């Protein structure tokens, strides 16, 4: 659960296996809702069948914020594969999200 | 937090400002200069350069709150992990883990790693609020420390959002009545690098760490304290094994208790000079003199006497080690070792250059606190006088105040340079002390002799005499000074003078004897003369009587003759009447 030391980006085998994603939100705020909507769209379009997504509401489980070092809301965390990555914001820029998750678009 | 005021031990600043509640920081001295501590339920910024002690201040505020004032706290650390923080304060005797276990403290390390974060679109720092709220609720915190919240500026790329969030954060803390300390790095020309002071307008404390003459001094200043009077000076502070302590300028008060009790100097003759009873208890005594004039010996006598009467003395030596002083004093018949063994005398020797002035002061404070002596001897204070004279003056003033406040009699020795300026002593500390004893050397006839006099002693009719100060195997003796034709004679000169005077008096006596004999002779001559004169006088008198008698007889005879003649004349007149 503890944060892992950051590594250089772009490991080639990141697309193998399943992405384990967590989206941290704090209640039903507009930003969170937008982020969730954007994320679902990205997953469906680019990560079909290759991801698991958990949405974590920190209002309900605040202790997880400390464990996963969450500061900004919304935060998308790629727990697997290693290394962990964090993408913050409403995920409105699909390309940046994909780069952040280190997955190449299947649509292209 | 609805429970904000339930257990908060707040103190009111002063009678004049009853509206502002304060949270005692528990930091020695700080609560004094702020009139009670930090503003309760409000944020305070503690700013300063690296290594100035911001974090230590914040931690002590938090830990003392949890341990001494029943106010649990939350530590949000952005720079050091919880474990690092624990280790940092462990040296001060605080155990963060045990406090956390007892639910008195909640530590959350907020790690910000810009390299693993990708930003897409809008976000805010709600996560921080969630964590803070969770932390505050899980221990029921009354105090919060954010160390150093500015770290978020390096972690996120949207300054506008960050500023808005920081504003919201401070508002949030204030709304919940959390007494908060926010540490911030000093910026160039500004109090904090990111201008945090814009958001916190309640209290700003600036810490500073500077080096003068290779000796570092830490200083604190209350830049701002809304709604409360506060000390505006720069106060020296220290971080040592007991934590953070600000040296309070207690000298603003002049209301020490005064004692009528006396305490012997350990030298009978000196006591005699001080109305026969010695120093006032709780007074301060300055012993100044040139090198080798016997200052330390005087001080050792005082310490010795204190211990002999069963009181405790603290002896702080800046020049000699304990062993050295003990050995040296044995040569004048003082056995200090026995009292050290008995625990009545505590000896501390350290180099003056070892610390800055404040550290010296604090060490003395600590020693006095621990040992609780009735007498403190500092031998000599001169060595502290390397730094800025004003600072030394202030430091000594504080020290004297501190000791006076506790009714501790203090003796300082000070080395005077060469002749001439003796009576103005360095840094003008003489005006701070109550009794000033001056030791001097007199060089005469190829030898040096020591003299002592009491230059001043407040509140007593002290002797104005200069005494010769003689060190012997049995201690110090003061001999009445030999004053003749305006000079004090000491040593062999004294002996010479004594002999001279003896000879003089002998000669005078002989002269007198001669004079008396002479007089006797003269008297007898005069007396015989008087006798002669008297007989002359009496012979003169009898001559005069004889002449008088003769004259009387002659007159008598004359009158008889005239009578007879008259009888004859009476006949002739009758005849003349018949004829007409």
Your description of this structure?
The complex is a heterodimer of chains A (108) and B (580). Chain A is 28% helix and 22% strand. Chain A is built from three helices and four strands. Chain A has a four-stranded mixed β-sheet, with helices on one face. Mean pLDDT of chain A is 78; it is low at 1-15. By secondary structure, chain B is of the alpha/beta class. Chain B is 39% helix and 24% strand. In chain B, the strands form five sheets. Chain B has a nine-stranded mixed β-sheet, with helices on both faces. A nine-stranded mixed β-sheet of chain B has the order 18-17-19-20-16-21-22-23-24, with helices on both faces. The longest helix of chain B is centred in the last third of the chain and has 89 residues, at 491-579. Chains A and B meet through helix 1, helix 2, strand 4 and helix 3 of A and strand 7 and helix 5 of B.
Put the structure in a nutshell.
With 108 residues, chain A is α+β, with helices and mostly antiparallel strands. Chain A is built from three helices and four strands.
Question: Key terms for this structure?
Answer:
heterodimer, A: 108 residues, alpha+beta, four-stranded mixed beta sheet, B: 580 residues, alpha/beta, nine-stranded mixed beta sheet, 14 helices, elongated
Beta-strand content of chain A: 15-25%
Please state the average pLDDT score of chain B: 82
Measured by residues with Cβ under 8 Å of the partner chain's Cβ, the largest interface is: A-B, 37 and 28 residues
What are the segments of chain B in which pLDDT stays under 50 over at least 5 consecutive residues?
1-15
Distance separating the two termini of chain A: 34 Å
Which stretches of chain A of 5+ consecutive residues score pLDDT under 50? Answer: 1-15
- Share of helix of chain B, binned: 25-40%
Overall spatial form of chain A: globular
Element order, helices and strands of chain A?
EHEHEEH
Instruction: Please state the overall shape of chain B, judged from the principal axes of the Cα atoms.
Output: elongated
- With strands numbered from the N-terminus, the spatial order across the biggest sheet of chain A is 2-1-3-4
| Arithmetic mean pLDDT of chain A | 78
Report the portion of residues of chain B in β strands.
15-25%
Report the oligomer. Answer: heterodimer
Describe the biggest sheet of chain B? 9 strands, mixed
**Which structural class do you get from the secondary structure elements of chain B?**
alpha/beta
* Strand segment tally of chain A: 4
How many separate helices of chain B?
Answer: 14
Radius of gyration of chain A: 13 Å
Contiguous helical run count of chain A: 3
């Amino acid at each position: 659960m503890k944060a892992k030391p950051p590594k250089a980006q772009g490991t080639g085998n990141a697309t193998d296996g399943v992405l384990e994603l967590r989206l941290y939100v704090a209640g039903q705020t507009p930003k969170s809702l937008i982020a969730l909507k954007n994320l679902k769209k990205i997953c469906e379009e680019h990560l079909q069948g290759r991801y698991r997504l958990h949405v974590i509401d920190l209002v309900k489980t605040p202790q997880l914020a400390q464990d996963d070092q969450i500061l900004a809301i919304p935060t998308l965390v790629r727990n697997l594969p290693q290394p962990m990555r964090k993408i913050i914001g409403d995920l409105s820029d699909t390309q940046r999200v994909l780069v952040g998750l280190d997955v190449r678009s299947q649509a292209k | 937090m609805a429970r904000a005021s339930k257990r908060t031990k707040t103190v009111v600043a002063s009678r004049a400002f009853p509206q502002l509640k304060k949270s005692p920081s528990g930091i020695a001295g700080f609560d004094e200069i702020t009139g009670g501590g930090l503003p309760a339920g409000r944020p305070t910024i503690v700013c300063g350069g690296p290594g100035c002690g911001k974090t230590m201040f914040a931690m002590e505020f938090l830990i003392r709150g949890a341990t001494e004032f029943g106010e649990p706290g939350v530590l949000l650390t952005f720079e050091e992990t919880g474990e690092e923080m624990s280790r940092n304060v462990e040296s001060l005797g605080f155990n963060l883990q045990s406090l956390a276990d007892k639910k008195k403290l909640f530590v959350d390390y907020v790690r910000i790693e810009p390299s693993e974060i990708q930003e897409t679109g809008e976000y805010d720092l709600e996560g921080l609020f969630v964590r803070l709220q969770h932390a505050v609720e899980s221990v029921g915190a009354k105090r919060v420390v954010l160390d150093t919240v500015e770290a978020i500026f390096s972690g996120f790329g949207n300054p506008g959002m960050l500023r808005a969030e920081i504003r919201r954060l401070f508002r949030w803390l204030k709304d919940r009545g959390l007494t908060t300390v926010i540490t911030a790095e000093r910026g160039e020309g500004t109090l904090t690098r990111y201008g945090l002071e814009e958001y916190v307008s309640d209290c700003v404390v600036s810490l500073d760490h500077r080096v003068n003459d290779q000796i570092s001094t830490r200083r604190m200043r209350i830049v701002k304290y809304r709604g409360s009077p506060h000390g505006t000076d720069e106060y020296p502070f220290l971080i040592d094994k007991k934590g953070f302590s600000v040296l309070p300028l207690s000298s603003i008060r002049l209301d020490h208790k005064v004692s009528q009790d006396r305490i012997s100097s350990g030298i009978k003759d000196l006591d005699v000079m001080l109305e026969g009873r010695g120093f006032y208890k709780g007074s301060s005594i300055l012993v100044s003199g040139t090198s080798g004039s016997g200052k330390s010996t005087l001080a050792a006598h005082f310490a010795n006497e204190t211990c002999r009467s069963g009181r405790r003395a603290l002896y702080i030596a800046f020049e000699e080690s304990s062993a050295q002083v003990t050995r040296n004093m044995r040569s004048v018949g003082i056995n200090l070792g026995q009292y050290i063994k008995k625990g009545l005398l505590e000896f501390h020797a350290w180099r003056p250059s070892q610390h800055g002035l404040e550290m010296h002061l604090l060490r003395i404070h600590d020693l006095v606190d621990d040992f609780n002596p009735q007498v403190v001897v500092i031998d000599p204070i001169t060595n502290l006088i390397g730094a800025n004279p004003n600072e030394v003056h202030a430091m000594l003033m504080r020290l004297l105040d501190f000791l006076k406040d506790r009714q501790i009699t203090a003796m300082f020795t000070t080395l005077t340079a060469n002749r001439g300026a003796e009576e103005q002593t360095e840094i003008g500390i003489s005006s701070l002390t109550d009794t000033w004893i001056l030791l001097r050397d007199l060089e005469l006839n190829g030898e040096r002799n020591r003299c002592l006099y009491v230059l001043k002693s407040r509140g007593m009719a002290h002797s104005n005499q200069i005494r010769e100060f003689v060190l012997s195997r049995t201690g110090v003796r003061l001999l009445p000074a030999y004053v003749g034709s305006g000079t004090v004679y000491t040593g062999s000169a004294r002996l010479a003078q004594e002999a001279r005077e003896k000879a003089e008096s002998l000669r005078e006596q002989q002269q007198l004897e001669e004079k008396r004999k002479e007089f006797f002779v003269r008297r007898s001559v005069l007396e015989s003369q008087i006798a002669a004169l008297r007989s002359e006088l009496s012979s003169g008198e009898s001559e005069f009587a004889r002449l008088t008698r003769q004259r009387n007889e002659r007159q008598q005879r004359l009158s008889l003759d005239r009578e007879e003649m008259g009888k004859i004349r009476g006949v002739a007149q009758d005849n003349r009447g018949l004829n007409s």
